[in-house]
Amino acid sequence: QVQLVESGGGLVQAGGSLRLSCAASGRTFSSYFMGWFRQAPGKEREFVAAVSSSGNNLYYADFVKGRFTISRDNGKNTVYLQMNSLKPEDTALYYCAASHGAGTMIRDFGSWGQGTQVTVSS
Questions:
Q1: Spatial distance between the Cα atoms of 47 and 59, rounded to a whole number of angstroms
Q2: pLDDT for 59-107, tens place per residue?
Q3: Integer CA distances (angstroms), 93 to 22, 77, 78, 116, in order
Q4: How far is residue 118's CA from residue 116's CA, in Å, rounded to a whole number?
């Protein structure tokens, strides 16, 4: 099982940018399908973005298309989420997750990080 540690969250004004990172342990990172999810207070956890093991296939929730970009560096065992044009409704705890499959449902991911907080002020 892979261990995941997120970083890069913080407080930013609306319209600003943040780049989240997720560092993974282990030598098999390149075999995992990786995803980002988020959970706002009082709401359910939701899918944000995902990337295939090779990095060639990208998947996004409709509400982040054109604003967020997911990428990965298999040489550094790290997946990134570049977030631009942030909105107050993007405020949430952002989680990194790893899967052996290729689905984007929460149940498809077996390994999760502890999350990094993103707060967007208006």
A1: 10
A2: 999 999 899 999 999 999 999 999 999 999 999 999 999 999 999 999 9
A3: 13, 22, 19, 6
A4: 7
Q: How many Cβ atoms sit within 10 Å of the Cβ of residue 87?
A: 14
Among residues 109, 10, 102, which one has the least CA distance to residue 51? 102
